[in-house]
Specification:
heterodimer; A: 113 residues; 0% helix; B: mainly beta
């Protein structure tokens, strides 16, 4: 089945220790998104790739970076995680012409100790 | 700016209808969406409505749009325990903007 896969599902990192979250997709969608979702809050868009074009949201902290080496994979790098970065991180994909119809992965829950 | 608001919690009995309400601010949104999130899972697109429509029905789901009042609702007929989840309303301008979600609890 075509899908969006996120690894790992649970990630624990130490305060200030860099961490990378992974996302892959078999849908061959050209747009990939990273969202941050904190408890009882709406998913918040951090950035997205439209093909190879990177689009950062204005209020995304510099601490968050992303890489998309090919169509299938996208990575979220948190350079120096703080306690406030503990959250669920959701990866999503869409076809370019249907930005609202997004397919989400199951998420990675990040804990910062 | 864009803002989407939803009530936080709804509890219904199995077999009853559920109505989840949402208000949005971006009148330029072309489509409005309802997503469902089950525990431990990502969001799943349930249905959507084009902004020039008033109503859309899809099996047990009915979406009503009042564009004048910027009000969107999702009605689930014959609600089942499997419908227990968090439901997110979203508007789309140049990106999806989600509400904080409504927790639907279905009592058997």
């Amino acid at each position: 089945d075509a899908m969006v896969i996120q690894n790992p599902r649970y990630q624990v990192t130490q305060f200030g220790k860099p961490v990378t979250l992974s996302c892959s997709q078999t849908l061959n969608h050209n747009v990939m998104y990273w969202y941050q979702q904190k408890s009882s809050q709406a998913p918040k868009l951090l950035f997205h790739y439209y093909d190879k074009d990177f689009n950062n949201e204005a209020d995304t902290p510099d601490n968050f970076q992303s890489r998309r080496p090919n169509t299938s994979f996208c990575f979220l790098d948190i350079r120096s995680p703080g306690l406030g970065d503990a959250a669920m991180y959701l990866c999503a994909t869409s076809r370019g012409g249907t930005l609202g119809e997004q397919y989400f992965g199951p998420g990675t829950r990040l804990t910062v100790t | 700016g864009e803002d989407v608001e939803q009530s936080l919690f709804l509890s219904v009995r199995e077999g009853d209808s559920s109505v989840i309400n949402c208000t949005y601010t971006d009148s330029s949104s072309t489509y409005l969406y309802w997503y469902k999130q089950e525990p431990g899972a990502g969001l799943q697109l349930l249905t959507y409505i084009f902004s020039n429509m008033d109503m859309k029905q899809d099996q047990r789901l009915t979406v009503l749009l009042n564009k004048k009042d910027k009000h969107l609702s999702l009605r689930i007929a014959d609600t089942q325990t499997g419908d227990s989840a968090i439901y997110f309303c979203a508007e789309s301008g140049n990106k999806l903007v989600f509400g904080a979600g409504t927790i639907l609890r279905v009592k058997s």
